[in-house]
Design a protein that fits this description.
It contains four helices and seven strands; from the N terminus they run H-H-E-H-E-E-E-E-E-E-H. By secondary structure, the chain is α+β, with helices and mostly antiparallel strands. It has two domains: about 30 residues, no CATH class; about 110 residues, no CATH class. It has a seven-stranded antiparallel sheet. Strand 2 and strand 3 form a beta hairpin. The radius of gyration is 19 Å and the shape is globular.
Length: about 150
């Protein structure tokens, strides 16, 4: 085996793996993220790898993007809902932004205020809610002060 073949072989194997497993493998390997969708809150509760107590019971069309890096807490959720957030979510000045972007999600940098729901910051969309974790210590502190 010559040097050129030795260098090309791993690239060909990776290309083959990606073609067999699709976009989710590409996202996971290259961008260190995974995206999941859920039809409703019940499916989200049963299958999501993140804890987000703020997700309303009437939520539908739920998209979740998480990090594939071990023990990374970064995640975003976009969902459709007509319900308000739980009472323990407090409106605070936005001090954080998500690590991941989702198609059709609003621009978090345009929001002066968000709701701090524990470790999540959540903002309204035209049809529901967009949330990310982790949020900032300042947002959690402001929420605790009420």
């Amino acid at each position: 085996m010559n040097a050129r073949t030795a260098l090309a072989a791993p690239a060909l194997v990776l290309a083959g793996m990606l073609s067999l497993t699709g976009c989710s493998a590409y996202e996971s390997l290259v961008h260190k993220q995974a995206t999941s969708t859920f039809d409703d809150a019940e499916a989200f509760a049963a299958g999501a790898e993140v804890d987000a107590d703020w997700v309303p019971a009437d939520a539908t069309e739920i998209t979740v993007r998480t990090s594939t890096v071990e023990k990374a807490a970064d995640a975003v959720i976009l969902l459709t809902s007509t319900s308000a957030l739980p009472n323990d979510c407090a409106e605070v000045e936005r001090q954080s932004a998500p690590a991941w972007a989702l198609e059709n999600a609003p621009d978090p940098y345009e929001a002066a205020m968000v709701f701090a729901c524990g470790d999540w910051s959540v903002m309204a969309t035209g049809s529901g809610w967009y949330g990310w974790t982790p949020n900032s210590d300042g947002e959690r502190s402001a929420a605790a002060l009420g």
